[in-house]
Each structure stands twice: as structure tokens, then as C-alpha cells.
Design brief:
Strand content: under 5%
Shape: flat
Number of helices: 5
Distance between the termini: 21 Å
Number of domains: 1
Order of helices and strands: HHHHH
Number of strands: 0
């Protein structure tokens, strides 16, 4: 398996693992509105990541090549929908903004972990 597929598979799995871990820590260590913010933010960003991956896979696989304008339009529709959901969650005081921020960082954290993992593999592979 080449490095890009391995990283994508790792990030996809790590998203759900970090999401579940963050929600569990939020439920145990913080108030309910913080844990709900972590849940809502993590769910929003993880679902967006999976929808983006599915859109790119379908759009860039022959023979169903799609214009880049369609991909960008779908991206902005998801971005706008996420923004509206986040606005209503914060303005209605349903979630804690700090918890929401932590939840929205799940995909970034999984990308950082995947990068560190691949760098470690490359460094130790070259050392031996």
C-alpha cells in the first residue's frame, strides 16, 4: 500500500477513535455542555471529512470525472451548512464554545498524529 492510501486510512480510523476518546473524556472530566460541545464539534468535522473524501473519490475516479467547480461548490455548501449549525449551537447556548472548539479539532489532531507516525517510520526506516 502506498503512503498516501496508508495515511488516508489511518486518518479515517483515527478520526473516529479520537472523537470517541474526546467525548468520553469530556463526559467524565467536564460539565455536560462541554461534553456536548465536544460531541457536536467532533461529529460535524468528522462527517465533513468523510463527505469530502467520498466526493473526491467519486469525482476523480474515471470514467466519472467531474469539473473542479462541482467539487468546490459541494465543499462550500458543506462549509456553509457547518457554519449555520455551529452558529445555532453557540447562539442558542446548547454547547460550550470551548468544547465545540475541541471537538472541531479532532480531524486536525488525527492528521498531526498520522504525520508524526509516518515521519517516525521514515526516520527509523532510513536509520536501519
Amino acid at each position: 500500500m502506498d503512503i498516501q492510501k496508508r495515511i488516508l486510512l489511518f486518518i479515517t480510523r483515527a478520526n473516529w477513535i479520537l472523537f470517541a476518546a474526546a467525548v468520553l473524556v469530556g463526559l467524565v472530566a467536564f460539565q455536560f455542555d462541554v461534553a456536548l460541545g465536544i460531541f457536536a464539534g467532533g461529529l460535524i468535522v468528522t462527517v465533513n471529512f468523510h463527505l469530502l473524501a467520498r466526493t473526491l473519490k467519486k469525482s476523480l475516479t474515471p470514467p466519472h470525472l467531474v469539473s473542479h467547480n462541482v467539487i468546490i461548490a459541494k465543499y462550500y455548501v458543506r462549509f456553509l451548512a457547518s457554519g449555520v449549525i455551529i452558529f445555532f449551537l453557540i447562539s442558542g447556548h446548547y454547547v460550550d464554545p470551548l468544547g465545540l472548539f475541541v471537538g472541531l479539532s479532532v480531524v486536525v489532531a488525527s492528521i498531526v498524529v498520522a504525520t508524526v507516525r509516518e515521519l517516525k517510520n521514515l526516520i527509523f526506516k532510513e536509520a536501519f
